[in-house]
């Protein structure tokens, strides 16, 4: 560890780009069947090796002749030729046309030997059974599509580096090729580290602090999207021998090895040592946020890049530094939709002295222009993976990005599109159904209070607000509903919980919601009322409720805690209690309203939302949601 | 056949769109492994079924405590708690924290039961071995990341219709899902008709008039690109029973059946009868060029669409009418790069009284704007498949599109890009190598004369001109080379052909090039000279050369005819003779020049070409090309 380079040697991001480019990923070309060639890139030029069509083809119904025999023929003075047979399309000519001879021929048929032109049938007349009178002169080549007219043998058909789309597949078909030499796809081994990581689909032991491995499949999908082939390797622990064996195995089998997944400093240390001792460490530490601890090196003639552990950081560094190298190796251009230009929706301060790859979300304004806002959840959150659409690179010396300033966003995928509607606020099961009816909406379950705050800040198109509101924000009410809220208790209410007073008076374990939740505001209003009834102070009352202070984020979380037996009562909805088969003690009914940003009320996504809301009751939005009513 | 609807009942293209939409393609949803889910579309909403993280997690190194026990603690008046054990990251806590107790805890570790807050280690001091002094008050929840903070169980994670990109794969991983419910991909059966069609890779009998089947793989690639699964069925002949069996089999196995490939009227008739007798013919004949004879119907509960036979027409009708229906069924949006806007490079007249789907090529002007020009090869040509980039829909009542007019081009694939360089003119092996060194160039082998004509018309960026030139076009000479031309004869020249005079004086079968070829102009100049020497007329001389009048298109075609034994001599290059192992009788040396459109001389693609040309000799462009010299 004494020789470990320190992060104060952070290299410039351009140096990191160059280092990755210097690693030769390019795999050997391969040959694939034509049916699997779409999307691949030609490894070499394809010259036509045959003529298309491959034969001189009659392009009219008529008579195949030697053109010279018709010279001078016209209506007044026809030439009479001996009829020697006939040729039909799709058959091999059995006749030969000599001087003074003709053969009947149909469109598409092969020109018989000796003939060099076709006289169209309208300018001829049969004379008995064995001769034809030709009433026009034809030059050699007339009404004949010569072999090679479409594609001539020897001609350059497709160049190296051509991306094969359906039309190129068509040309290759015409040339009779059923397999094609294409650029190889670089193979990318993904090594996931960290004892706490569990593969999706396997049992998770939360009690041991296990979490699902997010990075492996995310980065694998990114590799495939960039034109590589991803190979997942089993998890490695922090043990040197095991890590070395795994990394060397991956390096021997793949063109590039990525490690990712661990936030564990000791695992990173072990990898660092393996690369340095067994391979060649090119650089460690890049002046970029996130991704500072990036490693770039070589191992067993393969390239190695170590990605950060947090999912958004890992994907950011992958898309910025690694995906371009994979595309280059595969011969693919950067997708045209890899970046999008938009305007900052808000001002964002920055002055950190190194390049910042800032995760941002997209939305559209009322005229369809793209707006860009920072997604500020901390790089540790998985949800910011889907709340961020891409990254804006902010220069080290940029102090702030002003609202309205144009920025280029590198999307997390060329398939990412700005949501048609951005809504923030109270999570609610009817809202979920409403969103299901819209095309590509985005909802941020930040609670009513935070939703309103953000609406006031100008980013979301609309906020979902439940319960009493202590803040006024200019908005257009699009409609809403009411929902019954109260205490979710164990099925059958075995503790006989009767109401709010029991929470204060009995030693019950309660699970609350966070302060931004509208339902929490409804609870606080009810507590206020109870305190007033009792002539007590509100703090005194809340202090007597065990669990009051800890607010959980999810709207079902309190009920789920009750279902697990971890709590006696949880703040929630009658609909949630019914869904989870639990008991319910009603405390009231609250209103849920959707309030739109007035500037965006005419935006198509908002109008679509308003229209769905308008007919919500009739279209069964509240069906089987206990305690719900349209308002 | 008496009940066959006539083409004069042509329906409006919108009716055809509606008819295809009315056919229900949508296949049943399916479940796919997470590793194969990229690019698919969620069939239903995914709500989180677990909390992420799944446990309350210490976010600091320190002591897990009950917050209430620390109330009032400060530097001056610490609270002393009993130390009951320790908890490390990745392990299950073995202690429980009761009133007045604390447990040592590390970052990322699971909070032990009873504790609700963490005091950071810096604000504590161990007191002996079994107690710790806490010098600050913490509220319940302080320094704890609650279970579900990232994603809360019960929350809406992803909506139905979400396209799965790497980031969504990441969120699904976090939720532990290893398989995902996605929209089914519609299966599309492709039935190819016509006895003359042969699958690529199989032997082609040109002498019987066979050609390779272009449409099957082209349309199959289009189906896959649109999100469907293509299934190729064996060729059907024109026999009713056989065609019926095949169509019914395809309809039973697929959501949609496309027939395509035959230009044979009788095959189309047979299909028409099968659909009408066994299924339901919705419409026949659409007012669109190309594609008039389109059939739309139903068969065995599957949809059926009959595409035109010519490749460009088939792909045009597929992309315009069928691909949108496949995408809808798969739940995929239209790709953002499906269309591009450009300016007409030339004026194009039109007045045909029905919608025209005009194949066009793209190029870019000197400032990178997209220019659009009609590709005019007749819909029968396979090469126009790769010379056209897409289609412009021209309304029936449009009389002309003016040069400079803005048009929308529907690309033949979202992966199609405008070439960086458009060159037209003389085909040449050194040129092919030169083009191989450029990124995405396009070359149209139209011959020197036609290349110059087009250069004058303003479409190509450059023309390749060989031999003597009879037309002057303003241009910038980018450079060139010389090449030796003459007569390609059988290996060893067994007929002892000595020169041009032999062609005129002996009965030799000669294969010429077309009038647009520069090498033909060189030949004609040499004939002129010979005629002058002999005091003969040029026509008298050419008339005595058998084959003079028939010009083949490909630059290797005459030599290949000699190689096949079909001719005694062919007009060609020494380089071609050497490549094909044939004999060569030199007639002269001609210059090949690349001449650029003066308006585009500063365009990057042209500059790149000029730079490659500049260093051509040094970089081995002419290596092993016999008879080539840089000029």
From TrEMBL, chains A, B:
Q: Which Gene3D superfamilies match?
A: MoaB/Mog-like domain (3.40.980.10), MoeA, C-terminal, domain IV (2.40.340.10), Molybdopterin biosynthesis moea protein, domain 2 (3.90.105.10), Molybdopterin biosynthesis moea protein, domain 3 (2.170.190.11)
Keywords, A to Z?
A: Molybdenum cofactor biosynthesis
InterPro entries from the xrefs? MoaB/Mog-like_dom_sf, MoaB/Mog_dom, MoCF_biosynth_CS, MoeA-like, MoeA_C_domain_IV, MoeA_C_domain_IV_sf, MoeA_linker/N, MoeA_linker/N_sf
Q: Which Pfam families match?
A: MoCF_biosynth (PF00994), MoeA_C (PF03454), MoeA_N (PF03453), PBP_like (PF12727)
Identify the SMART domains for this entry.
MoCF_biosynth
Q: Per the UniProt entry, what is one GO biological process? A: Mo-molybdopterin cofactor biosynthetic process
**MoaB/Mog domain location:** 189-328
* PROSITE patterns per the UniProt record, alphabetical: MOCF_BIOSYNTHESIS_2
Pathway terms, separated by semicolons: Cofactor biosynthesis; molybdopterin biosynthesis
Q: Which NCBIfam families does this entry report, sorted A to Z?
A: Glp_gephyrin, molyb_syn, PRK14498.1
Protein name in the entry: Molybdopterin biosynthesis protein
Specify the species.
Answer: Halobellus litoreus
């Amino acid at each position: 560890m004494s020789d470990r380079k320190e992060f104060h040697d952070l290299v410039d991001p351009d140096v990191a780009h160059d280092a990755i480019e210097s690693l030769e990923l390019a795999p050997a070309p391969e040959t694939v069947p034509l049916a699997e060639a779409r999307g691949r890139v030609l490894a070499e030029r394809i010259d036509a090796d045959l003529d298309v069509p491959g034969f001189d083809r009659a392009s009219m119904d008529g008579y195949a002749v030697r053109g010279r025999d018709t010279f001078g023929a016209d209506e007044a003075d026809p030439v009479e030729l001996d009829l020697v047979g006939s040729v039909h399309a799709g058959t091999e000519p059995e006749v030969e046309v000599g001087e003074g001879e003709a053969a009947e021929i149909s469109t598409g048929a092969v020109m018989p030997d000796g003939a060099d032109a076709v006289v169209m049938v309208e300018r001829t007349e049969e004379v008995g059974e064995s001769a034809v009178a030709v009433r026009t002169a034809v030059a050699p080549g007339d009404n004949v599509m010569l072999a090679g007219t479409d594609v001539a043998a020897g001609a350059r058909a497709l160049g190296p580096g051509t991306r094969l789309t359906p039309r190129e597949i068509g040309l290759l078909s015409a040339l009779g090729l059923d397999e094609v030499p294409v650029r190889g796809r670089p193979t990318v081994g993904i090594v996931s580290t960290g004892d706490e990581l569990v593969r999706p689909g396997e049992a998770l032991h939360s009690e041991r602090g296990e979490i699902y491995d997010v990075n492996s499949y995310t980065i694998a999908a990114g590799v495939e999207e960039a034109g590589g082939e991803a190979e997942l390797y089993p998890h490695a622990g922090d043990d040197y021998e095991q890590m070395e064996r795994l990394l060397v195995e991956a390096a021997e089998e793949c063109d590039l090895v990525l490690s990712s997944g661990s936030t564990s400093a000791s695992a990173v240390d072990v990898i660092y040592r393996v690369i340095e001792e067994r391979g060649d460490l090119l650089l460690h530490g890049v002046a970029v946020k996130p991704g500072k601890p990036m490693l770039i090196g070589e191992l067993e003639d393969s390239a190695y890049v170590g990605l950060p552990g947090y999912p958004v950081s890992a994907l950011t560094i992958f898309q910025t530094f690694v995906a371009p190298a994979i595309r280059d190796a595969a011969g693919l251009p950067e997708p045209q939709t890899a970046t999008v230009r938009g305007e900052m929706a808000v001002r964002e301060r920055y002055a950190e002295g190194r390049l910042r790859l800032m995760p941002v979300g997209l939305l559209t304004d009322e005229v369809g222009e793209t707006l860009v806002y920072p997604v500020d959840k901390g790089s540790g959150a998985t949800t910011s993976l889907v709340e961020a659409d891409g990254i804006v690179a902010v220069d080290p010396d940029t102090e702030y990005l002003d609202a309205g300033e144009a920025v280029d966003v590198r999307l997390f995928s060329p398939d990412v599109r700005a949501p048609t509607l951005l809504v923030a606020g109270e999570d609610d099961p009817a809202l979920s159904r409403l969103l299901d009816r819209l095309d590509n909406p985005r909802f941020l379950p930040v609670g009513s209070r935070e939703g309103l705050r953000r609406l006031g800040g100008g980013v979301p198109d609309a906020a979902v607000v439940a319960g009493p509101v202590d803040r006024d924000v200019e908005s257009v009410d699009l409609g809403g509903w009411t929902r019954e809220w109260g205490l979710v208790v164990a099925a059958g209410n075995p503790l006989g919980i009767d109401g709010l007073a029991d929470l204060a008076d009995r030693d019950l374990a309660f699970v609350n919601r966070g302060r931004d939740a509208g339902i929490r505001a409804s609870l606080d209003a009810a507590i206020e009322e109870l305190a007033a009834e009792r002539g007590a102070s509100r703090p005194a009352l809340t202090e007597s409720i065990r669990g009051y202070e800890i607010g959980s984020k999810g709207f079902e979380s309190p009920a789920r805690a009750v279902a697990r037996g971890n709590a006696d009562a949880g703040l929630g909805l009658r609909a949630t209690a019914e869904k989870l088969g639990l008991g319910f003690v009603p405390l009231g009914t609250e209103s849920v309203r959707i309030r739109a940003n007035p500037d965006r009320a005419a935006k198509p996504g908002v109008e679509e939302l308003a229209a769905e809301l308008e007919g919500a009751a009739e279209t069964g939005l509240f069906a089987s949601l206990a305690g719900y009513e349209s308002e």
